[in-house]
Amino acid sequence: MNIEEYISSGILEAYALGELSDQERSEVEKNLTVFPLLREELTRIEEAQERLFMAAAVVPRSATKKNLFEKIDVQQAPARVIQMPQENSRIGFWKFAAAASVTIALISSYLAYDYWNRWRKTESNLSDLMAQNQRVAQDYNTVNQRLDQIENDLGIMNNPDFQRVVMKGTPNAPSAQASVYWNASTKEVYLSIQDMKELTDQNQFQLWAIIDGKPVDAGVFDNNFAGLLKMKDIATGAVTFAVTIEPRGGNESPSLETMQVAGNVIKG
Amino acid sequence: MQSKDRDALEYLYDHYAGALLGVISRVIKKEEIAEEVLQDVFLKVWDKMESYDSSKGKLFTWMLNIARNQAIDKTRSKEFSKEKKTGDIDNFVNRIDNEDYVEQKVEAIGVSELLKALPDEQRFIIDQHYLKGYTQSEIAEEFNLPLGTVKTRMRLAMKELRNLLHIA
Fold first, then answer.
1. Is B148 part of the contact surface with chain A (CB cutoff 8 Å)?
2. Is any Cβ of chain B less than 8 angstroms from the Cβ of A44?
3. Taking burial as the number of CB atoms within 10 A of a residue's CB, which of A3, A216, B20, B31 is the most buried?
């Protein structure tokens, strides 16, 4: 586009005076955004035009201004009251926005605090539950192990290869009783106690097998176990089992005067 | 905010009401009606203040266009047709000849003083176009001039006016 020609055509003057059709008008507006020169020229034209019209001004009567502003006050006052929330000035909007944001901030901090509390409570509940769960799992394990052991013990007791030797209480401990399950071919020995007295920390029970008239150590035990306790292997030839009280850790030879229980192997 | 808008409107009125009434008066001769239209113009400015877009022109240009349209609308209204029309070209021409074309009031600065320095033919075009409100083609037709000539004189006159007003 030749800008000089465009300016010379007088279209900007016509634009400034509002004489263009809508189509011409929007064309000029488009060109104004593209060519800064046109904008500068338009500004000068508008300025000259404004000065011209200012020079040709006709002063209105003062009553006209009074009437006008009365109309504006009347027209605006009631309308403003009703339209306050929606159409009202930007400041009103910002006031509303500020109030709203303060309210929102208050509500959300309360909610945040509330949720934080709940979260903490939930978290502590959760750790309680986890601990509980762990305890249950441990209990289950314990029970399971115990059950395994009982099954195992039961297998031994029901095994015909194991011979049960009942040891009755001696005059030292008439009510005491214990049993030995002995498999002569595998040499395995298991002990179960029914009623043995409490010992001090320094002492332990010791199981003996009498083979060829000589006591053979079959291991030490405390009275705090349930089910069967595996003892030392005992080879064939044992005729009697007996329990004595010995210093903790066991003794090489039995202190016969402390014997608690004894029982003979019944020859099958 | 509301009172600020009102203050702004009052400023605009104090500043531009005279210029706009001048424009309106050249379309509507009767003083009361012209001032009624002036009020309508400012009511419209008040209502549409938000829609003014400075990228499309100066504030005065915007108000000027509202005033011109409002005045022209008024001449087309039923109410107005009862009144004596002044849109009669002979009237204007006579008034120019008599040099008493604005009879209502003394002009604020004196446009004739301003235009005095222009060559006759240029002053005439500006007078017809800006002050009487004729379009360029109406002037060409009425005074039997080629449209191109009207446009050229128009441009020259405006340039000259800018020189007189020291608008670089």
1. no
2. yes
3. B20
Give the three-state DSSP class for B50: helix
Does the beta carbon of B136 lie under 8 angstroms from any beta carbon of chain A? yes
Nearest CB to B22: which of A58, A64, A89?
A58
Q: Are the Cβ atoms of A46 and B23 closer than 8 angstroms? A: no
How far is Cα A78 from Cα A71, in angstroms, rounded to an integer? 12
Give chain B's length. 168
CA A201 to the chain's CA centroid: 46
Q: Where do we find the tokens 């020079």?
A: A55
Q: Which residue has the tokens 């379009």?
A: B135
Please give the average per-residue pLDDT across B154-166, as a whole number: 86
Residue B30 contacts A where some CB pair is shorter than 8 Å:
no
> What ipTM was assigned to the predicted interfaces of this complex?
0.79
Distance CA A154, CA A158 (A): 6
The string of pLDDT tens digits covering residues A74-114 is 876 655 444 444 555 667 777 788 888 888 888 888 888 88
Element (H, E) at A18: none
- Contact status, residue B62 vs residue B52, Cβ threshold 8 Å: yes
Strand order in the sheet with A189-195: A214-221, A203-211, A238-247, A261-264, A162-169, A177-183, A189-195, A229-231
Per-residue pLDDT for A244 more than 90? yes
CB-hemisphere CA count at 13 Å for B12? 25
Quick one: A137 exposed, middle or buried, by C-beta within 10 A (0-12, 13-18, 19+)?
Answer: exposed
Report the run of H or E that residue A106 belongs to, with start and end. helix A90-158
The pLDDT score that the predictor gives to residue B109 is 53
Of B38, B108, B158, which is closest to A48 when you measure between CB atoms?
A: B158
- Does A57 sit within 8 Å of B35, measured CB to CB? no
Cβ-based burial of A15 (10 A; exposed 0-12, middle 13-18, buried ≥19): buried
Q: Is B110 helix (H, G, I), strand (E, B) or coil?
A: coil
Question: How far is it, in rounded angstroms, from Cα A65 to Cα A73?
Answer: 12
